[in-house]
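quick q for whoever's on today - can somebody do inverse folding on this one?? i tried earlier but teh output was garbage lol. tokens:
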């Protein structure tokens, strides 16, 4: 349970149009997702007294709140990359539990793919060359190269194979095949992954996330608001957050992500164990992220992630621990900071609204517990949220 005196639940969750969206602005996608999340909850925007957003506008989230016609009395603009939304959810849950807000709306939207197609931006992502990055940029140390170097370290220390990493992509695509809204649904094999063009050794193209457009929104509310909602509540049981490093030289161990801390905190605060989870939604900009996060959340021991992802364990159909049930950033959608999409998918699974990709136990029962864990930067930050019904 979140710290404070009031229980907190997710009462609305929705996506905007995703995938290939050439005729919308980021603001449009924010608004579309927000309207759909409120409609999902059966509430009007007047109930929203808290707002959290990042990544858009000079004064984010002030500009987005204005665009949506909101005047919140609680606001958060935390920006820590892909883990932003799990960290924001933690902050929002604490604020609601403490009585500082009653209903907090988290919103994100991006036209990353459409902007590149239209020539409004390039395909390269630069974080600049100031601060600690000044010591890495001159050597061409790109974002993807940092993830690739960490993956190679894991392979050297623990014997993880490139085929095992490829299995993460294969199983993500198998889950995406069950999701009619996923951007890529055709099956792929380990050989397909390995034979693709090299992006950053050891990552070929299919080891890397796709680039899409899209938005997402989640509405968190106090327990007394729940009775006015159209949907069944999904309770926030525990959260954790952690930052690790900015410069790679300050990262003590490339084989340990900050999820090792955020996950431990979230499970402890929820009073549950990793083994009780019915599914996991994990940030997967690259295959290695899924593997190492599974280790650090406690689903397997350090160094055993490669063996764990073999034999279809991550699949919705027949998997022991379904992971990224919508297809994840590797196959479903990845418009940038994808952490909010993890929360939407987790909520849909717990409500039994996931259609053909719905997770059920051997008796056909719906899941009761799930975890969403986002990672930001190059394993610089992590936020983990445990949810239950």
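ok took a stab at it. sequence:
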């Amino acid at each position: 349970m979140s710290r404070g005196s009031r229980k907190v639940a997710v009462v609305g969750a929705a996506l905007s149009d995703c995938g290939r969206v050439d005729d919308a602005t980021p603001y449009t996608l924010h608004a579309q997702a927000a309207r759909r999340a409120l409609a999902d909850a059966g509430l009007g925007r007047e109930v929203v007294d808290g707002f959290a957003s990042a990544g858009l506008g000079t004064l984010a989230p002030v500009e987005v709140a204005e665009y949506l016609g909101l005047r919140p009395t609680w606001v958060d603009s935390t920006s820590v990359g892909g883990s932003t939304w799990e960290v924001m959810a933690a902050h929002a849950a604490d604020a609601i539990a403490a009585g500082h807000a009653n209903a907090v709306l988290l919103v994100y939207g991006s036209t990353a793919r459409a902007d590149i197609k239209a020539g409004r931006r390039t395909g390269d992502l630069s974080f600049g060359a100031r601060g600690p990055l000044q010591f890495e940029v001159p050597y061409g140390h790109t974002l993807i190269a940092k993830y690739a170097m960490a993956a190679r370290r894991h392979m050297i220390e623990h014997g993880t194979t490139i085929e095992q990493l490829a299995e993460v992509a294969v199983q993500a695509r198998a889950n995406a095949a069950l999701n009619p809204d996923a951007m890529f649904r055709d099956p792929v094999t380990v050989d397909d992954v390995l034979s693709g063009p090299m992006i950053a050794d050891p990552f070929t193209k299919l080891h890397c996330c796709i680039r899409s457009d899209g938005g997402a929104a989640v509405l968190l509310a106090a327990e007394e608001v729940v009775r006015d909602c159209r949907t069944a509540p999904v309770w926030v049981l525990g959260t954790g957050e952690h930052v690790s490093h900015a410069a790679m030289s300050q990262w003590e161990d490339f084989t340990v992500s900050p999820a090792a801390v955020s996950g431990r905190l979230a499970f402890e605060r929820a009073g549950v164990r990793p083994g009780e989870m019915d599914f996991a939604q994990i940030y997967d900009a690259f295959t290695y992220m899924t593997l190492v996060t599974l280790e650090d959340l406690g689903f397997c021991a350090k160094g055993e992630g490669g063996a764990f992802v073999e034999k279809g364990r991550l699949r919705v159909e027949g998997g022991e621990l379904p992971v990224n049930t919508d297809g994840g950033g590797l196959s479903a959608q990845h418009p940038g900071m994808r952490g909010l999409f993890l929360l939407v998918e987790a909520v849909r699974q717990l409500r039994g609204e996931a259609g053909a990709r719905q997770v059920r136990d051997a008796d056909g029962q719906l899941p009761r517990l799930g975890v969403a864990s986002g990672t930001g930067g190059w394993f610089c930050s992590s936020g983990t949220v445990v949810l239950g019904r």
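fwiw The CA atoms of residues 178 and 357 lie 5 Å apart. also The two ends are 12 Å apart (CA to CA). so keep that in mind when u check it
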